[in-house]
């Protein structure tokens, strides 16, 4: 059912044993649907399981509606969905079969055959919530914890950090962290470089993950068609991004500096060109601006500068361990590298992506091996959280955009953030392959003994 009114009619006509209900529907909320069901003697006793990201509101509605027995917090895995159905329909499968036909689950809105086995909730309605909690709650209050993430079958995804047909099957040893290699050359050979790479073979995200997991302190330098960019890190945390080119770092003087003598600003720019110290830190050291706005401006322009690297072709980089310049040691780092990287990706706009958006709208995003776990720890915007709730290994990009009422340009920009962080990867549409794959409803039917 695509609306609450249609869901009520379907429940009254088919009298299902269990209802999986999205809390937010186009015409009414889940608690209103439950109220209509409770008013009808035939549907009042049907158990309802909510599916939503609104943890607090769903909990309040559970206490008001006696027929609500639990809820699934989006996003969730198909294993958890099946276990939920098994938990609440186990007794039903043991009862003698009645003469009435068993009501079927509503058909999903997405008709593509799944490209992977991971599948979430039934398409009771397009999950177009108007809001989404920033911090995730436990996925389900009564069933067991989420099972292990199902990894897609090993096929070549349509998206890579940079299009290339000659990408080697395995990462070259030169790109492995030095600590993991059997032989570690001394600095006379490497020049003090801990690791290096090229985004045609080695993604920016992987470079950041190495720094975070090994808690490295030093400078990650990026070489591209503009002046180099430097990322300073301490104990695996990002401190700031900067450049020796002040015009690249901050082309226009911010309005907040309008009261400062232009000569002092020019001197701060000259200092950045000489030492790499962001001009805002220099102005703060000279007591021309207070430390708090200086820190905010340094973070903003550093992230905006780094954002250009995500869509730049063939960026080379190298990390060198060592002491940091004095201007960076007093700054506090971002504890979560994923969160910092996501903040930079929010600066990337559709025109900057170029051919990176040339994908098949029928392709299917699915979580990577650790993507589902990582996305739970991110502080997402409302739009990002709604988008992430649609990833299930079945819905295509086009279907997700339709469910959330987004145009494909906006959807591609949001999708790019999750792809660049390697939280999801996209797989070709398999509907035309003629493969005999079981749908989520067939699996549910087998799990509860209602299908062969």
Give a brief description.
The protein is an alpha+beta fold and 452 residues long.
Commentary on this structure:
This protein has 452 residues and is an alpha+beta fold. Among the domains are: 4-129 and 435-447, Rossmann fold (3-Layer(aba) Sandwich); 174-334, no CATH class. Helix content is 37%, strand content 12%. It contains 18 helices and ten strands. It has helices at residues 4-14, 30-39, 55-64, 78-94, 187-190, 204-213, 246-249, 262-275, 279-285, 291-311, 326-329, 337-345, 350-353, 371-376, 382-388, 397-403, 408-420, 440-447; strands spanning 19-22, 48-52, 68-73, 193-198, 218-223, 229-234, 237-242, 316-321, 364-367, 424-427. The strands form three sheets. Strands 4-8-5-6-7 form a five-stranded antiparallel beta sheet. Helix 9 packs antiparallel against helix 10 and helix 15 (382-388) packs across helix 17 (408-420). The model is unreliable at 91-185 and 433-437 (pLDDT under 50).
């Amino acid at each position: 059912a695509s609306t609450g009114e249609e869901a009520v009619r379907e429940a009254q006509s088919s009298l299902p044993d269990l209802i999986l209900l999205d809390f937010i529907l186009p015409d009414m909320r889940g608690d209103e649907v439950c109220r209509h069901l409770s008013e009808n003697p035939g549907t009042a006793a049907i158990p309802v399981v909510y599916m939503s990201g609104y943890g607090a509101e769903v909990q309040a509605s559970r206490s008001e509606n006696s027929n609500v027995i639990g809820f699934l917090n989006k996003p969730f895995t198909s294993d958890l969905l099946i276990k939920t159905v098994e938990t609440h329909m186990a007794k039903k499968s043991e009862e003698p079969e009645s003469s009435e036909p068993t009501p079927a689950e509503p058909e999903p809105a997405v008709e593509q055959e799944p490209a992977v086995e991971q599948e979430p909730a039934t398409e009771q309605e397009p999950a177009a919530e108007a809001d989404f909690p920033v911090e995730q709650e436990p996925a389900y209050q009564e069933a067991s914890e989420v099972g292990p993430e199902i990894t897609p079958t090993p096929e070549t995804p349509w998206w890579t950090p940079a299009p290339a047909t000659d990408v080697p099957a395995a990462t070259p040893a030169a790109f492995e962290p030095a600590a993991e290699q059997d032989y570690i050359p001394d600095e006379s050979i490497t020049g003090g470089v801990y690791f290096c790479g090229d985004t045609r073979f080695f993604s920016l995200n992987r470079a950041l993950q190495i720094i975070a997991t090994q808690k490295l302190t030093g400078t990650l330098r990026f070489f591209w068609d503009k002046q180099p960019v430097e990322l300073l890190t301490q104990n695996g945390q990002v401190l700031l991004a900067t450049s020796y080119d002040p015009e690249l770092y901050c082309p226009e003087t911010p309005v907040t500096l309008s009261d400062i003598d232009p000569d002092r600003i020019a001197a701060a720019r000259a200092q950045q060109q000489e030492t790499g110290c962001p001009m805002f830190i220099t102005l703060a050291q000279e007591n021309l601006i207070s430390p708090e706005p200086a820190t905010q401006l340094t973070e903003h322009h550093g992230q905006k500068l780094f954002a250009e690297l995500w869509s730049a072709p063939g960026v080379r980089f190298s990390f060198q361990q060592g002491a940091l310049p004095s201007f960076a040691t007093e700054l506090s780092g971002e504890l979560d590298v994923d969160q910092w990287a996501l903040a930079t990706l929010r600066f990337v706009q559709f025109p900057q992506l170029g051919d990176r958006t040339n994908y098949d709208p029928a392709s299917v995003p699915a979580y990577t091996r650790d993507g589902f776990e990582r996305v739970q720890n991110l502080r997402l915007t409302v739009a990002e959280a709604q988008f992430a709730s649609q990833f299930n290994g079945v819905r295509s990009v086009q279907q997700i955009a339709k469910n959330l009422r987004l145009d494909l340009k906006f959807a591609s920009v949001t999708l790019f953030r999750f792809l660049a962080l390697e939280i999801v990867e996209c797989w070709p549409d398999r509907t035309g392959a003629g493969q005999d794959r079981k749908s989520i409803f067939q699996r549910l039917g087998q799990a509860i003994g209602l299908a062969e």
